[in-house]
Design brief:
The complex is a heterodimer of chains A (138) and B (271). Chain A is an alpha/beta fold. Chain A contains five helices and five strands. Chain B is 50% helix and 17% strand. Classes of the chains: A alpha/beta (138), B alpha/beta (271).
Chain lengths: 138, 271
C-alpha cells in the first residue's frame, strides 16, 4: 500500500477546509485542517508534513510567516499558497521566498489537486491523479 | 520556464540583445518577424500593420482610430498565443506595454547609451553622431507618444521595468549575462497563478480582436472562460449591440459565458 501524503491545510475561512479536505482525501492525502495560524504552527512544530497549503491573509500571522516557519523547521516540506488577494508583487514575493506554487481563489478543487500531485512528484512520492473529475470552483 | 520581454530606445540594439539572450538561454524568439503572419492571418495589409505599430491614427495616413485599434489587437492576440508556450524572448511587438501583471514575465529596458550606442548606430548607418542623436531624440519622442496613445503607458518610464541596463556602463556581453542571470531568480518562475493570468489575458485578447473587427469602444476582461465586455451604446442600439457581442464573443474558442455592460453613448443620443 502506498504511503498517504501528509497535508496541513490552513485557511481562516472554515468553508475552504470543509470543501478542500474531501477533495484531497480522494487522491490519497491525509489532511489536517486549521483555521488559526498559531495552532497550525504549533502542529507543524510537532509533525513533519509533506505539504502545507496556507492562505496568505490571516489575523495574527500571515501565510509568508507560516512559510518561513515551515522552511526553518522542515526544509523538505512543500508550501502552497492560496489567496483571494493575488497580485503580481505578492506572487513574486512568495515565489522568491520559496513557495512551491501559488494559486488565486476562487479555484476548482481539481486545480489544487494538480498542484498537490506536482508537489508529491517533486517529493518523490507520485500519486495517481487519473481518476479525478472536474468539480465546480471553490 | 519564463518569458523575457526586451525593449530599448534603439531598435537595432533591442534586437541584437534579444537574439543573444535567446541564444544563451536556448529560448524561442518572438520578434517583429511575426507581423507578416499576423497580417496574413487577419487579412490585413502588411504595410498598414507595420505603420500601425509605429504611428498613431491620422487622416493623412488613411488609418482610422478604429482600424488602428483593431490592428494592434490582432498583434496582441497573436503575441499572447505565442507567450502561452513559455520560454520565450520577445521584442519589437510592444509586448512590454500590454503584457502586464504576469509574474513570470521579466521586462527589460536596454538604454543604448549616449556615447557607445550612438556611435555604433552612426557607424552602421554611415551618418554623423549629431544626425544620429537628432534622429534618436525624434524617435524616442514618437515612441513615447505612440505608447501613451496605444496603451496609456509611457514606455520611457523606467519604473515600469524589472531590469534596466545602460549600455554606457555595461558591455552588451555583460548585459546578456545580467539578463540571463536575473531570469533565473525564483521570482520569475512560472506558477499556477501567473499561467492563469496569462491565459485570461490571452482569452481577453482573442475576444477583443473578434469584437474590434466590427465595433469600437470595447473593453474585455476574461477569467476562466467567463468574459465581461464593457461598451457604449445609445438606448436605441443597446439591445442589438448586446446580442451581437454575446454572439461574437460566445463563438470564440475558450469562452463559456459572456456578460455585457453597456454605458450610454451620449454623443450618439444627442446626434
Amino acid at each position: 500500500m502506498t504511503k498517504l501524503l501528509e497535508v496541513l491545510l490552513l485557511d481562516d475561512e472554515p468553508i475552504v477546509g470543509r470543501r478542500l479536505k474531501p477533495a484531497l482525501d480522494k487522491i490519497g492525502c491525509r489532511v489536517e485542517v486549521f483555521e488559526n495560524p498559531k495552532e497550525a504552527v504549533a502542529r507543524i512544530d510537532k509533525k513533519e508534513f509533506d505539504i502545507v497549503v496556507t492562505d496568505i491573509r490571516m489575523e495574527e500571522m500571515d501565510g509568508i510567516q507560516v512559510l518561513e516557519h515551515v522552511q526553518k523547521k522542515w526544509p523538505r516540506t512543500k508550501v502552497i499558497i492560496i489567496t483571494g488577494y493575488a497580485k503580481m508583487d505578492l506572487a513574486r514575493e512568495a515565489m522568491g521566498k520559496g513557495v512551491f506554487d501559488f494559486i488565486a481563489k476562487p479555484f476548482r478543487p481539481d486545480d489544487l489537486r494538480r498542484i498537490i500531485a506536482n508537489a508529491a512528484e517533486a517529493l518523490g512520492s507520485p500519486i495517481d491523479f487519473s481518476s479525478i473529475n472536474n468539480e465546480p470552483a471553490e | 520556464m519564463s518569458i523575457i520581454i526586451i525593449s530599448s530606445d534603439a531598435m537595432e540594439i533591442e534586437e541584437t540583445i534579444a537574439e543573444k539572450v535567446a541564444e544563451a538561454m536556448g529560448y524561442s524568439r518572438l520578434g517583429h518577424q511575426i507581423l507578416a503572419d499576423v497580417a496574413a492571418k487577419y487579412q490585413i495589409d502588411p504595410v498598414k500593420l507595420n505603420e500601425a505599430m509605429e504611428t498613431t491614427p491620422s487622416l493623412f495616413k488613411n488609418l482610422s482610430a478604429r482600424q488602428w485599434r483593431h490592428y494592434l489587437a490582432c498583434v496582441e492576440a497573436e503575441v499572447y498565443d505565442y507567450l502561452l508556450a513559455d520560454n520565450i524572448v520577445c521584442w519589437g511587438l510592444a509586448a512590454h506595454l500590454y503584457v502586464t501583471g504576469i509574474s513570470h514575465v521579466m521586462k527589460v529596458r536596454v538604454l543604448s547609451g549616449n556615447s557607445r550606442g550612438t556611435m555604433e548606430i552612426a557607424e552602421q548607418k554611415g551618418i554623423s553622431l549629431q544626425v544620429v542623436e537628432k534622429l534618436r531624440a525624434g524617435e524616442l519622442q514618437q515612441r513615447k507618444k505612440w505608447s501613451l496613445a496605444a496603451y496609456n503607458y509611457d514606455e520611457t518610464d523606467l519604473s515600469r521595468y524589472d531590469l534596466v541596463i545602460n549600455l554606457d556602463q555595461i558591455d552588451p556581453e555583460e548585459a546578456v549575462k545580467t539578463i540571463t542571470g536575473a531570469i533565473e531568480y525564483r521570482k520569475f518562475q512560472v506558477m499556477t497563478y501567473s499561467m492563469k493570468c496569462l491565459s485570461n489575458l490571452a482569452l481577453s485578447a482573442r475576444v477583443n480582436v473578434t469584437l474590434l473587427k466590427s465595433m469600437a469602444d470595447i473593453n474585455v476582461q476574461a477569467r476562466d472562460g467567463s468574459v465581461v465586455v464593457s461598451t457604449k451604446a445609445s438606448a436605441r442600439q443597446k439591445r442589438k449591440k448586446i446580442a451581437t457581442i454575446k454572439e461574437l464573443a460566445g463563438n470564440v474558442d475558450g469562452v463559456s459565458y459572456v456578460e455585457v455592460h453597456v454605458k450610454k453613448n451620449i454623443l450618439e443620443e444627442t446626434a
